[in-house]
Design brief:
The chain is elongated and about 75 Å long. By secondary structure, it is α/β, with parallel strands linked by helices. The chain has 17 helices and 14 strands. Bound molecules: uridine-5'-diphosphate-xylopyranose (UDX).
Length: 433
């Protein structure tokens, strides 16, 4: 059944939600208070790089089902279901800043004139739904019925459209049957399992899932240290672990530590929430600590391989926090490059999509048009992000371009024996050097 939907916030989650719901045939208005962003979107210019997004946006705008505007008032009046997908950035103390959610809730209350379902899609602390409900109740001009729901989003950057349209599960946290029916009508076409819970449980599912995944990554990174100390191979160990169906093989790749706008922020927020509730979530504090140490260990690996960093030139391949995105927020590459620059190295970097963004954060880096250009004249090559094109590199050519055949691989992309046969000093994660 076609719905009139409004999505507030045109970031990753909002844009993907809005365009994919329009693709199902719904009439969707995407609202954002950033005028420039809305102007760009109206010209089909995406504010983020996300495979497939531009096509979905274009198709639905042209079909007259998807609109972009800064006018929240009018959008609230025109829509039956309002998704809140505004940012919840971290404050200095690690808590999520929820002021945008409060503002939007107020605006919704002031502008609705009949029943509305307000759905929270942003990642928020448990019990935010209750706060949204209280804020709306306080600001309503007259007695209007409404429902609040929680519908956390689990999309991953780089595969966001696919994750949204073919999710492992859809979580709906509701208080009334009416809200459950509306959300099921919206999501049934995806043919994915829908789990219906109370609002608090839905909110907690998001915290729990992200923290658990981050725990998996930190577990494997800690394991990589033990592998190096014992001569074991972390990739073999995780292969053996992952074949146990209860563990599963995904999210067991050792590397330079997790980054991105979700894991570090959500983990810090969940630790804070637990603290406020009176529980010291020591396990998650260790997950954070291991993640930080993993980056420091990688920097040390580079320093050990090069002996002296000062005045050396280091080629860095991969800047985004993971492949298939231009997102550099909390990317391990930033800390790694900053440490090397502090030690007096010169950096030549290449990334297929993230160089524009990175050049604003680290202008002192020399940005190159290809991996080969980055390697040319460098004293070592460092892999930070596992873009698939790095798998196809011609390492005979790379060796010829480098001053010294040193390859430090933070993502275990290559076979150590083959690299050593080619003459590289090859250093990776969780394996004998
Ligand atoms: C994550 C969640 O997966 C998603 O469900 C949620 O909605 C938002 O946060 P995202 O941040 O896009 O998504 O990236 P993800 O693919 O989950 O990777 C997170 C980080 O973990 C990356 O830095 C990645 O490099 C790292 N990682 C992941 C590893 O180091 N090893 C792994 O095995 C998996």
């Amino acid at each position: 059944m076609v719905k009139r939907v409004c999505v507030v916030g045109s970031g990753y989650v909002g844009l993907v939600t809005g365009s994919c719901l329009a693709d199902l045939g719904n009439n969707v208005i995407c609202v954002d208070n950033d005028k420039k962003k809305i102007e760009m979107l109206n010209k089909f210019k995406m504010p983020i790089y996300e495979p497939g997004l531009e096509d979905v946006v274009k198709r639905n705008v042209e079909a007259g089902r998807l609109f972009f505007t800064t006018d929240l008032k009018d959008s609230v009046k025109k829509s039956e279901v309002i998704f809140i997908a505004v940012g919840t950035p971290p404050k200095a103390n690690g808590e999520a800043d929820l002021s945008c959610i409060e503002d939007v809730s107020k605006q919704i209350a002031l502008n609705m004139d009949e029943y509305r379902l307000i759905v929270d899609k942003s990642t928020v602390p448990v019990q935010t739904g209750q706060r949204v409900k209280e804020t709306i109740t306080r600001n309503l001009k007259k007695d209007i019925e409404f429902d609040v729901a929680s519908n956390p989003e689990f999309l991953k950057e780089g595969s966001a459209i696919n994750d949204f349209t073919r999710p492992d599960r859809i979580v709906i946290g509701v208080e009334t049957e009416r809200a459950a029916v509306i959300l099921k009508e919206i999501y049934n076409p995806f043919n994915s399992p829908i789990i219906t819970t109370d609002i608090q449980s839905a909110e907690l599912i998001k915290h729990a899932a992200n923290s658990f995944l981050a725990t998996k990554v930190s577990f494997v990174n800690a394991l990589s240290v033990i592998c190096e100390l014992t001569g074991a191979d972390v990739d073999k160990v995780t292969e053996g672990m992952g074949m146990d169906k209860r563990i599963g093989s995904s999210f067991l790749n050792a590397g330079v530590g997790f980054g991105g706008f979700c894991f570090p922020k959500d983990l810090a927020a969940f630790i804070k929430i637990s603290e406020k509730l009176g529980y010291d979530f020591k396990l998650l504090k260790a997950v954070e600590e291991i993640n930080k140490k993993q980056k420091d260990r990688f920097i040390k690996k580079i320093e050990d391989a090069l002996w002296n960093i000062k005045d050396k030139t280091i080629a860095v391949l991969g800047l985004s926090f993971k492949p298939n995105t231009d997102d550099i927020r909390f990317a391990p590459s930033i800390d790694i490059i900053k440490a090397l620059l502090r030690d007096g190295a010169g950096i030549r970097a290449y990334d297929p999509y993230a160089m524009d963004k990175m050049s604003q954060v680290l202008p002192e880096v020399k940005y190159c048009q290809s991996s080969y250009e980055a390697a040319d004249g460098a004293d070592a090559l460092v892999i930070v992000t596992e873009w698939s094109e790095f798998k196809e590199l011609d390492f005979v050519k790379i060796k010829g371009l480098l001053n010294d055949a040193i390859l430090i691989d933070g993502r275990n992309m290559y076979d150590p024996d083959s690299m050593r046969r080619l003459g590289f000093k090859y250093v990776c994660i969780g394996k004998k050097s």
